[in-house]
DUF3445 domain-containing protein (Rotaria socialis), 384 residues
Amino acid sequence: MLEYLLTILLIIVSIFYIIKSFRRKSHTKKSRPIRSFGKWIPISFQAPLPIPYPNWSIEKTCPLLYRPFKYGPDYFITMGIRRLDWNDWIELDNEWKVYHKEKLSRLSTDRASDLCKTAPEAYDGALETMELLSQYLVHRYPSLFQYEFNDNEKQIRIKATGEIYSIKSDDPLKYASLLIQDDLAIMIEGSDGQYYLKAGSITIPGFWRLRDKLNMPLAQIHISGDVPKFQEKLQHSMERYFQRMSPEHPVIRHNYFIQTDGELAWSNSIGSEDTFGIGWQNAKPNPPIEKIHFRSERQTLRRLPRSGAILFTIRPYFIPIVEIVKETGVPGRLASAIRSWPDDVARYKGKVAYEDVLLKYLDEQHEQQCKNGIEADNSKSYPY
């Protein structure tokens, strides 16, 4: 009798959850109407306002120590995305003035038209970017930004420099990128369901140029850049992810490179920014260790609710190798990660240009740490 009653109870519970699941799916379908590719239906979603960054200082707040590499022997190729806390959308630190000065300088030259472009179909996404970014910054970093109004025109003021930019302008992405240490890129969905790079303010990219990628679909951007295993392992999942991405769920990812010069904006070691043929084939092998730098990127992706554009923020972190090896466990871990790269990843990251000098130096620094009794700190999770 007891077994019979338990069976009946399990059936009732199962029916309850089936009905609940059906209602949830029905509600989702009602709130998100089916749409045709290339035709976005604006959503009234508003991201929560961030809390002020605790004790943030343009002089004293140091860059976070992102070290997105792991011990070998395996190297996995994935999208590498994780959920992003709305409070942490944009990170600023005491290098803000350096980045700002570099951006202003480059956008004041004849090269500016190659660094910042917005196609007509991406203008609303660019304007929405400026609106959302300004709103975020005045709440997250109130000691650096504030709103101002001039003849009812809404503007944002940078307190450290006195610069004032209109929220609504002919080139909103340019001014949006001058507020932060990130570059910005906007992808727009086409009628074929693919996402195309239609706008960007790419002023400090290091290794790629906006003019080479503008108007390309997502897949071609990666294929033309020889991204390892993109077609085999990433293309299908990435394209589906973009199509399904919702405004409520921003994501974050990290990557890293080795650079054989000390130029934040453009790595001349791979060729001049103004020439046709750029690539690691131009790099002079085995430069002095003092010239080799560790470059990592913190990228965020979010769907903009009004325009439907997908916005990338791309924040580079740049530090000399001779500085990064002072950190506990880093020399051995970085050397192990580099040795784990398969051949196609090694080519993509230009390993042949620096491996002899860099690996020898990392091994020496790792050995020295071991002799000094310094043990690797494995308590920190990726990407630290």
Observations:
- The beta strands are 82-83, 116-118, 145-150, 153-158, 164-166, 183-189, 195-201, 251-259, 293-303, 310-320.
- The chain has one domain: 45-371.
